[in-house]
Amino acid sequence: MKKYIYIIVISTCMLAQELITPIPININVDEKKAELGNKLFHDKRLSKNNTISCSSCHIINEGGDDNRAVSYGINGLKGTRNSPTVLNATFNTSQFWDGRSSDLREQAIGPIHNPVEMGSSFQEIIEKLKKDNFYIKRFSMIYDDGITENNIIDAIVEYENTLITPNSKFDKYLKGDKNILTKKEKEGFQLFKEYGCISCHNGVNIGGNIMQKLGVFETFETTDFGKYNITKNEEDKFYFKVPSLRNIQQTSPYFHNGLTSTLRDAVNKMAFHQVGYILDKEETDKIILFLKTLDGEMSFLEKTYE
């Protein structure tokens, strides 16, 4: 049964086609840099004790996250937040749950220095890479100044820019194939609009472009203050980056703390806490069917190096 009436929704529903846009089929990248970034992304030598790589927390072919409630770093240290997907992260307007990084470049630096994640430094990393003939040769081919902090990050970010998932069923619908969605999937999209989900989950990434308070109508169960931890502004308490909904069925568990393991629970919690509705089973089923149409193609640049 409906608990509240969420009036803000009405003005956005009519603009759904403009609010959500398809992922481009491809984006321009430097392939040589991306290939080098691919190797670096999967290289455990970027961590202090050579046990953790970027891909340890962002498993590319399993949704771009690590399928854990919170991530683990070197020496089995437990983090405090769920690993966001790296897939389509290039389209986000900020990175990390608290939005503290404005782009992928800033984001890539954070885990390397974080003592609970990779616990390393660029000085240590560069010393390791300079002992590897592959890296010496490849960096010198691409960058005039060879192996440097700036070039390591530049290559990793270029690789991450390739991790897009275009051609989802819903993207094809947005491009004009109005028969590709089933009746129930279309009804799920309509409910997604009517209940106001689209107010926060919009843009090319269907999220990732704004910060929003978690618990607009009902308090959400968390002790994490989100953006407030960075700004110390009282009005920023419980504000988090709205996550992308693309490939959402592959990125369980959900929320910044991995509170919920099923998509059904996640949908129901968001309806209750964010827009003030209690969905019935049929409504939830239809919204889930719509969300599953957001899975895109995953034909990444995954070259294996010896």
Describe this structure as you would to a colleague:
The structure is a single chain. With 306 residues, the chain is mostly helical. The chain has two domains: 9-24 and 166-292, Cytochrome Bc1 Complex, Chain D, domain 2; 31-161, Cytochrome c-like domain (Cytochrome Bc1 Complex, Chain D, domain 2, Orthogonal Bundle), CATH 1.10.760. 37% of the residues lie in helices and 2% in strands. It has 13 helices and two strands. A two-stranded antiparallel ribbon has the order 1-2. The radius of gyration is 20 Å and the shape is globular. The model is unreliable at 1-17 (pLDDT under 50).
Question: What's the quick description here?
Answer:
By secondary structure, this protein is mainly α.
* Number of alpha- plus pi-helical segments: 13
- Total count of strands: 2
**What is the H level of CATH, i.e. the homologous superfamily of the largest domain?**
Cytochrome c-like domain
Uncertain regions spanning at least 5 consecutive residues: 1-17
Tell me the strand order in the biggest sheet: 1-2
Termini separation (Å)?
58 Å
Structural class: mainly alpha
Mean pLDDT: 92
Architecture per CATH nomenclature, i.e. the level-2 architecture of the largest domain: Orthogonal Bundle
Instruction: Give the CA-based shape.
Output: globular
Q: What is the CATH third-level topology name of the largest domain?
A: Cytochrome Bc1 Complex, Chain D, domain 2
> How is the main sheet built?
2 strands, antiparallel
Could you give the order of the helices and strands? HHHHHHHHHHEHEHH
Helix amount, in percent?
Answer: 25-40%
- What is the CA-atom radius of gyration, in angstroms? 20 Å
| CATH top level class name of the largest domain | Mainly Alpha
Strand-residue fraction?
under 5%
Q: How many domains in all?
A: 2
